[in-house]
Each structure stands twice: as structure tokens, then as C-alpha cells.
Design brief:
mainly alpha; single chain
Length: about 210
């Protein structure tokens, strides 16, 4: 289960990088078209692995999905153990001559049908979890993409690079160019405000 969400986080971080790069190209193209005589070139970067770790919206969705996963897997495990126990009991009853071979065969055939149903449910669950994780990633990416565009309207960066611990192409960058905290702060603020709007409350400025 932990490995499942580690993979999900890696996918999210990788896609964050692609998303930010595409967003930068759009912003850069718009600036070149509107200000052809402007030679200023402002660069910033975002630590996408940090962003994935502390973005509250992402973590809340991931936690909710994890809880659903744990509940579903617990149900599947309990069903499988029940089938296994019933099959073993039939064998013991047959060995102790408490049931006839014909009756034992009939009971085992019934268990086999239930096992096939369990396998179908398990496969359906695996596909559903894969689809849910992909939808979660897309939902988070959409949220970040929308805010990055809003953020750059005020800061007018020519390029915002994506940096992460494992796969970054940035070998060195001045820490003053790191806008990760700003991005995270505003993303979390917007998310808290959306929750407050649902509850009819107001979030105080930090």
C-alpha cells in the first residue's frame, strides 16, 4: 500500500514538472508577443517534490483514497480467509467422515464459484484504484496549473523551472530564485478558503 502511494507521488511530481514547463512556455510566448522590446528575463524555480509533500489539498485527497483502499483491502482479505477456512473445514469433515464425498465435492464447487467472484471483485478493485489515482493526480495538476498562471500574472516570470531531488536538471540555482514557499502558501490558503466557504467560516490571514 505504501509503495502504491510512493508511485503515485512520483507520477505526480514528474507531471508537475511537465506542467510547469508547459505553463512557462505559454507565459513566455505571451510576454514576447505583448512586449517585443522587453529584454528582461526573469527566472524562478519550484521544488516539485516539496510541493507534492506539503500541498494540503493533495494530501487530503491522498489520505481519503488511502482510507478507502485500506477498507476495501480489509474486506477482500476477510472474504478470502473465510473461503479458505471453509474449504479446510470441508476437508477435515470429509477426513472425519462427517460428510460424504459427494457432499464435500458439492460444497467445494460452491466455494470455487465464490472464489471466482472474489477474483473478479479483486481485479475490478485494482482497476478502480488505478483510475482513481490517475484522476486524483489530474485533479491536483489542474489546481496547480490554474494557480501558477494566476501567480505569474503578478510576478511576470519568463520561466519557472521545475526542480526535484531525484530527477532535477538544475545543477545549481540561487535560493533567492526559489518560489516554492510562495506557491505552497497560496495554494494551501486557497484550499483552506474553499473549505471555509463550504462550512461558512472565514480563514484569518497568516
Amino acid at each position: 500500500m505504501n509503495r502504491f502511494f510512493q508511485v503515485l507521488s512520483i507520477v505526480a511530481v514528474f507531471t508537475f514538472g511537465l506542467l510547469l514547463s508547459n505553463c512557462d512556455k505559454e507565459d513566455n510566448g505571451n510576454q514576447n508577443n505583448s512586449n517585443p522590446s522587453d529584454n528582461s528575463f526573469k527566472i524562478a524555480y519550484v521544488k516539485t517534490d516539496t510541493l507534492a509533500e506539503v500541498y494540503e489539498y493533495y494530501n487530503d485527497l491522498k489520505t481519503a483514497l488511502m482510507l478507502e483502499q485500506e477498507e476495501a483491502e480489509a474486506d477482500l482479505r476477510a472474504r478470502y480467509k473465510s473461503l479458505e477456512a471453509r474449504s479446510m473445514q470441508i476437508q477435515r469433515d470429509l477426513q472425519n467422515r462427517m460428510i460424504t464425498p459427494t457432499s464435500a465435492q458439492q460444497k467445494q464447487e460452491k466455494i470455487q464459484l465464490e472464489l471466482q467472484k472474489w477474483q473478479q471483485d479483486n481485479e475490478r478493485y485494482q482497476l478502480e484504484m488505478m483510475e482513481r489515482s490517475q484522476n486524483l493526480t489530474l485533479e491536483i495538476l489542474d489546481s496547480i496549473q490554474n494557480y501558477i498562471k494566476i501567480y505569474n500574472e503578478d510576478h511576470n516570470f519568463s520561466m519557472i523551472l521545475a526542480s526535484d531531488t531525484l530527477g532535477s536538471s538544475i545543477l545549481y540555482a540561487d535560493e533567492s530564485l526559489d518560489v516554492t514557499k510562495d506557491i505552497i502558501k497560496e495554494l494551501n490558503k486557497r484550499y483552506r478558503n474553499s473549505l471555509a466557504d463550504q462550512d461558512g467560516e472565514e480563514i484569518e490571514e497568516e
